Amino acid sequence: MMKSVFGDVRQIGFMSRDIDESMRHFVQAWGIGPWYVLRELTSPMIYKGEATEPVISIAMANCGDLQFEIVQQHNQAPSLYVDSLAVTPSLHVQHVAVWTEDFAGVNAAALAKGWTPVFETTPEGSSFVVHPSAPTVCIEISDCSPFKNGVREAIRRASDAWDGADPIREGLPD
């Protein structure tokens, strides 16, 4: 049986020019929520080999086991996010993410298949890779640290129990 280099897709990442409008869209049009939003975080990263510090807001919600993430960048620091919004509409899929216990192994397997890292969080924990045959399709390889796993599970549980009330929540779930 053929197996994906990356494992199962666990997240769809969207870029947005207006994160609040996008969250409302997913609540009203899709019925997805509740959303947990972290606002205006300075996020040191490496983009195409150079250090950069985009200021971003991130919102997360689940639809079953699939997590939806929306990112809005507030400054013009070089990043995959700025490049992505330069050529696309106000809300669009920017990446799919895989979550792995073997970050180094999956990253190495991707590189061996011709994928190239273009965006990395520092310290190690996430890497965005593209393939030369489809350079606008990004895969995020994300580690499964206890903190990330706890947040992911709390968001999934909140979505399972959500009754439509309080659709946009600041911060992370308890």
Helix content: 25-40%
* Main β-sheet, spatial strand arrangement: 4-3-8-9-10-7-1-6-5-2-11
- Unreliable sequence segments: none
**Overall morphology:** globular
The major β-sheet equals:
11 strands, mixed
Return Rg in Å: 16 Å
Strand segment tally? 11
CATH superfamily: 2,3-Dihydroxybiphenyl 1,2-Dioxygenase, domain 1
Architecture in CATH?
Roll
- Approximately what portion of the residues adopt beta-strand conformation? 35-45%
Element layout with pairings:
Elements: E1 9-16, H1 19-30, E2 35-42, E3 45-47, E4 50-52, E5 55-63, E6 66-73, H2 80-86, E7 91-100, H3 103-112, E8 116-121, E9 126-131, E10 134-143, H4 146-161, E11 168-170
Describe the structure.
- With 174 residues, the protein is α+β, with helices and mostly antiparallel strands.
- The protein has one domain: Roll (2,3-Dihydroxybiphenyl 1,2-Dioxygenase, domain 1).
- It has four helices and eleven strands.
- It has helices at residues 19-30, 80-86, 103-112, 146-161, and strands at residues 9-16, 35-42, 45-47, 50-52, 55-63, 66-73, 91-100, 116-121, 126-131, 134-143, 168-170.
- An eleven-stranded mixed beta sheet has the order 4-3-8-9-10-7-1-6-5-2-11.
- Strand 8 (116-121) and strand 9 (126-131) form a beta hairpin.
- The longest helix has 16 residues, at 146-161.
- It is globular.
